[in-house]
Amino acid sequence: MPPAKDPLPPLAGLPRAHLDWRPDDGGDDAPHSSEFDDVYFSRHDGRAETEHVFLEANRLPERFRAWWEARPFVIGETGFGTGLNMLCAWACFDAHAPDSARLHLVSTELYPLGRQDLVRALTAWPDLADRAAALLAQWPEPVRGVHRLWLDDRVILDLHFGDTTERLERLDGAVDAWFLDGFAPSKNPEMWQPELFAAMAARSRPGATFATFTCAGVVKRGLKAAGFAWRKVPGFGRKREMLAGEIATPPADQRRRSTPWFTPPAARPARRVAVIGAGLAGCTVAAALARRGVAVTLIDREGPGAGASGNALGALYVKLAAETNRQSRSYLAGLLYTRRWLEALDPDHELWSPCGVLQLATAEREARRQTRFLANHPLPASVVRQVDAAEASRLAGLALPHGGLDYPLAGWVRPAALCDHLAASDGVSAYRDEVQELAPTPDGWRLTLAGEHGDTAFEADQVVIAAATASNGFAQTTALPLQPVRGQISRLALPDGTPAPRRVVCAGGYAMPPRDGALTFGASFTPNDTDATTREADHVANLEELERTLPGYLAALVEAGADVSPGALDGRAAVRAASPDKSPYAGPVPDADAWRRDYAALAKDATRVPDLPGRHHAGLWISAAHGSRGLASAPLTAELLASRICDEPLPLEAPLVDHLHPGRRLIRDLMRGG
Length: 674
Description:
- The chain has three domains: about 45-250, Vaccinia Virus protein VP39 (Rossmann fold, 3-Layer(aba) Sandwich); about 260-310 and about 415-480 and about 580-670, FAD/NAD(P)-binding domain (3-Layer(bba) Sandwich); about 345-410 and about 485-580, D-Amino Acid Oxidase, subunit A, domain 2 (D-Amino Acid Oxidase, Chain A, domain 2).
- By secondary structure, it is an alpha/beta fold.
- Helices cover about 30% and strands about 25% of the residues.
- It contains 19 helices and 32 strands.
- The strands form six sheets. Strands 16, 17, 18, 25, 26, 27, 28, 29 and 30 form a nine-stranded mixed β-sheet that branches. An eight-stranded mixed β-sheet has the order 6-7-5-4-8-9-11-10, sandwiched between helices. The protein has a six-stranded mixed β-sheet with strand order 20-13-12-24-32-31.
């Protein structure tokens, strides 16, 4: 059957908010929206209004004091604006919540502010300066989609850039309290529509509250129709009244009617989680869970940073499709998240470098593809832009005969060192051993190990499999197809003073900026080959690809005194894991036998969708098939898994979460009569 048209909005940049600054009632300059001809807040009393309208009317101080849940308290907001509401909620949380509590903020924004406007807007409250600095340090590029920010160890902010209703309709998560904000209904009627209130209701937990500054009739009618009970309460300042209320029983989520197999499993305890595999996928999951207070046991036969994650250098890059698809959406979201995550994790750039990546168009066909890609995806130049040969040469620091795409936010990473760093996170216990068998227990899973002193076993509440090509070697995962792909990199010693690329330069292969006096380049790509020994033939192939990528560079190296013979090269070979559709597996492990029985009718008629939620192996998860782009995918999919395990809103839109679901191939095969 032909692929369905992607219902998501275009993968594109968003316009920045246009602000002018006008005196408020107190005579201070306040930010004013040119798009909506309305003020964001009064510098004189804007914070007091936020605290009255959103914090007090939602009873946040008392609810925070009583919050002892393992999951975070979730606040949803319509219209992030300057972030004042969320910063005040964070301050309130710190003042009242127990130390064990966590806060998760979800906010939408169609016109994100520029960084300098945000800085100016938030200077009015010096006591919020530290929190504002944490927000500014991670302020994302204006790209449509979800942007996850870790504000501190207890507070996450998910910024959903795009139309508010569309964003909430695709939110995978549930909210405890709503800040129904945004410009006034008379100024922004497009937002205050019935669909908005319906989306809020569908994303609410039972008993979720809301508060809003307005008493407009369209708001009261919309809230009531969606199932919210509202009441008038005293407003702030000159506004006599405002609305507050709650929803007792939110409507059932109807999004799963056409894809019931992707219904997520029910939340269960996650005090102790075992992660099998200590490569990049496993180490990022372990660190993400530990950050949430989960005790993690990380198990790998060879220790952290082995296998394909053991290279000294790796490229942080993506290659996006010319036509919009969900794989490209997922990888771009991953690239942007990894960049923010690395900057927060390692601000001194010891483990990585934001040097940028050039993706050269060395053939006319690739040049046309890149031009089509940019026409289909009007992204900010700060994310990707087209450069000619002269600009590419300037950026790379080498003469290049071709232009291409420049990704300024990309770069290189030290994967092996990064894995070591993550495996040493507080709350992670790393062991060198091999898991031979997984068996469910009434309370979780029993793992049988092949220890040095005989078979051993231990139990965990939940298990994440992140073992690359070995990930489908368990009885519960044999139905997940994985393809081994051998790759070999080469390293060439450079004489002092030899010119070298300043950016990662990609074409058929890639060349890295030198580190420790050597140029790393490659990598070979050999599907269905599991031999991890280095081969001179692959060094030869890598040298040939380097010459195609950087014509004349090898001759310049020889002239500078470098030995470029294959026998003089150092290198490393490893085996990656890939899925048939080249997207990672990230999610709960399906019960394949149950899926084949429950959804057998799809083989005869793909429109006959049984009303049965997908059955999964409870508490069993997988992160695998990251291929050669794991640096762009593993950190974000680790957040996805940790969020699902810990019952939080997810860092991707629901359709992209489904795209990464490990059971997608089972459904595809059933629909094709397999």
